[in-house]
Every structure is written in structure tokens, then in C-alpha cells.
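Entry 12.
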Amino acid sequence: MAVDHYENFPVASFLLPAHLREAVAAIYYFARTADDIADEGQRNPEDRLAELARYQAGLDNIENGKTDPDPIFQRLGRAVAAHDLSVSLLRDLLDAFAQDVHQQRYATFAELMDYCRRSANPVGRLLLRLYRAESAQQLEWSDAVCSSLQLINHWQDIGIDWFKPRVYLPQEDLTHFCVTEQHLCDERVDANWIAMMHFQVDRARKMMLYGAPLARTLPGRIGFELRLMVCGGLRILEKIEAVNYDVFRRRPQLTSSDWPLLVARALFNYPRS
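Predicted 3D structure (C-alpha cells):
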């Protein structure tokens, strides 16, 4: 498990019940390939948006009961039909990916959270739908976990995103802590940068801890996998702190040596509400 890309949700793993693995794999492949269209390779923005428009047309076909020639949408359509999944949530993902093509800065944290609402939260809501675990409280917790994972991914990838060029750090926070984009260009880790990043890490941690009780409401294996994801996200935040917020030279990420700790925390030291 990595808090990165679309690896931050279960991908038809052995922990999932067999009857749900195909649906999760279909959602994952749709999200991953669409994200790659927006984010990877050397295509120009117009070509990226045109390809994402083709994905929107594929969702149109699913909604209208038509068979799409693309196997991605044939597979996704079967999952939607079998589990009564919300196509609007899939559209939210595409909308966020398209936003990544043309928007490189976020003025406020509220604006960034609106992006997270579409880029991350739909995945959690789709998974909850598979389990028919959709109380108002469960959805709220899920949104907190997914948005936190998205923020954590942004904070560990600040240096990488700078060259795309994207800055997910809210401009209002940069101003408040007297940090400029020259800090990113110079990979400057001074007192202002440390204070600003401490604030971002603390905010993401509080959000994750708020949503953590969701795992205790889900059955068996999926509940345990969610505990691992929560613990993994919190572990990345610890690693950001351990390098004194220098995410430029030492990108914090999970390695195989973290697994025993994550399993132990998920089993014996999982956050309490």
C-alpha cells in the first residue's frame, strides 16, 4: 500500500471478499487510466482534455445502457449495473482530473478541499456503496480519510509537483507563513517553511484521525485494510516530520520495513475516536 496515485485504496487484494474484487478492480483501472491521461506523458493540454472527454462519453454510454467499444467501460458498466454504483461519482473523478490539466494553483484551503471532494472522496463513497455502508456518519468519515490521503500525497510530492508545474499548497497559507514559490524553486527549508509544513501536516493528521472510526464500522477484511490505510497515511506524516519537512531531498514514502509496524498498529494501537 502506498499513499500515492490511485494506490491509496484497495485494489482487488486478497483482503477483499471475492465477489467485490472485480468491481474494485474496474473502478481502480478506470480511475488510474484517467488520472494518467491528465498527469503522465508528454501530451499537450488539448489532447489530454479530448481524451478525458472520451471517458465522459464512456460514462454516458453506461448511463444510457449502451455498450461502449472500450473494454474499460464494458468492465466498468458491469460493475455499475451489478452494484448500483453512482455514475455521478465517477464523473466527479473525471472533473478533478480535467482540473489538473488546466489549474496549477489553489488560492484557499476551501478551494483545495473542493478539489479533494472530487479527486479523492468519490473512491471512498464508491467502496462504501459496495458494502452498503452508507450512513451519513460513515460517508462523512470516509470523506475525511480520503481527503486526508489526498493531502498527504500532495505534501509528500511537493517537489515532484513543482516541476509539472503545480502547487497544491494553498496560496493563503504561503502568504500567512511568509513562504513564497521561490522556496520551492530553491528547495529552501527555513523556519518559515518548517512552520508552514508543520501546519499542513497537523491539519492532515487531524482530518485522518477524525475519519479513522470508519474502519471499526466495516466488516472483517475491508475494515482491517482501511485500518492499514489510515495507519499508512499517519506513518507518512511521521516521516515528513522526521526529515524536518524537507520533502524535496528525501521524499517520505512507505517501504517494506514499515509493514510490521503498520500491521501492529492496525491490530493493537489503532486510533480511538
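Annotation: Residues 1-6, 8-12 have pLDDT under 50 and may be disordered. The domain at 18-268 is CATH 1.10.600.10 (Farnesyl Diphosphate Synthase).
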